[in-house]
Amino acid sequence: MSTLITNIGELVTNAAPDDDPGQGPGPFAALTGAALIIDEGRVAWTGPAGQAPAADEAVDCRGGAVLPGFVDSHAHLVFAGERSAEFAARMAGTPYQAGGIRSTVAATRAAPDEVLRANLARLTREMLAQGTTTLECKSGYGLTVPDEARAVALAAEVTPEVTFLGAHVVPPEYEGDRAGYLDLVCGPMLTACAPHARWVDVFCERGAFDADEAAAVLAAGHAAGLLTRIHANQLGPGPGVQVAVTAGAASADHCTYLSDADVDALASSGPPSSGTVATLLPGVEFSTRQPYPDARRLLAAGVTVALATDCNPGSCFTSSMPLCVALAVREMRMTTQEAVWSATAGGARALRRSDVGHLSLGARADLMLLDGPSHTYLAYRPAVPLIRAVWQGGQMSRP
Ligand SMILES: [Zn+2]
Q: Ligand 1 centre and the CA of 115: distance in Å?
């Protein structure tokens, strides 16, 4: 069954170099007056609408823009409870501290599977309705062997991009025994979680884990067959980015406080397919009233930049990639093209995925149709429901 998607005002392709989809996305690229054919869940043809070959069925976009689906490469969706009172207090002047995570840990441990599964389903539906077709999902609110194993197993029901984040914070019962908790994370907890996970992550921050601890967690995860990523340099300057680059991590996430050496390390970490991406999470700065990361400095240095939501009940409870694009453009001075590229192709790079984030021939047919003629509308019309349709592996849904 093939589908012709035609009368596209602007088709953002991020086409791969030489149209070789195995290389993953290329730079921002777009066609006007275009059409696209989906066949067997893949992009089978793109080009001028007037030259499109026949297909079994057709969708008329009436001049709307079509983009690759968003790749949200950073989210914490397995949790129970909510922290709106903490948000209200923060807006009234109480600063954010990493310790607030512990209240979500208590609620998550106490929740039955069905509650966690229902919350996860609600959030992933919410994301799809906003154009997110690939999402990463972390554990990290269980912090016991059975609770973390449950979290990664539940996450694996909704995405292949599952991340083991046992090293989120030291739980209260290990308050006086950090080494004991790290042994648990790198030993039995990792063994229980690795079969359901693709990634290992660690919160490298004052109040969470230091450089040596973070490096040990990533090394143990790597030895267990997991790929590595890290929460780095969110609340202040720190060693996280250097730990990430040294470990060959796919992504250093947050990157709000960077030294020149950190920027250099990211820029020289390797080619886009194997280097360390800087994943910026502007929803966090919006929701914690912290300074935004300096995207222009990273882009000027040649660092690959991704945008993601960090959807979580504490520091940033948005699931909206369009909001992140709008913030990146308005507050971080990214161009609309840079922001859309980072939210699609950049996210794919951060997840080491070559099949998503672009619409080259052979790429997964993950795309969205906007109620607007160009990608710019995502920033030009902030907080407006612009997503008219989403295709995931060629399957269309309408929000
Ligand atoms: Zn996070």
A: 21
d(CA 315, ligand 1 centre) in Å: 8
Q: Report the candidate in 305, 307, 319 with the shortest Cα–Cα distance to residue 387.
A: 319
**DSSP secondary structure string, 225-284?**
T-EEEEEESSSSS-SHHHHHHHHT-SEEEE--S--HHHHHHHHTS--TTTS-EEEE-HHH
DSSP category for residue 369: E
CA 204 / ligand 1 centre spacing (Å) = 11
CA pseudo-torsion sign 202, 233, 293, 27: negative
Residue 86 token pair: 């903490």
CA 365 to chain centroid, in Å, comes to 18
pLDDT of residue 225: 98
Strand 277-280 to strand 227-232: parallel, antiparallel, or no bridges (unpaired)? unpaired
CA atoms of 249 and 270, how far apart (whole Å): 11
Q: What is the 268 CA–ligand 1 centroid distance (Å)?
A: 24
| Cα–ligand 1 centroid distance for 31 (angstroms) | 35
Residue type, 358: H
Structure tokens at 340: 């859309």
45-76 tens-digit pLDDT: 999 999 999 999 999 999 999 999 999 999 99
- Model confidence, pTM: 0.97
**Mean pLDDT of the region 341-368:** 97
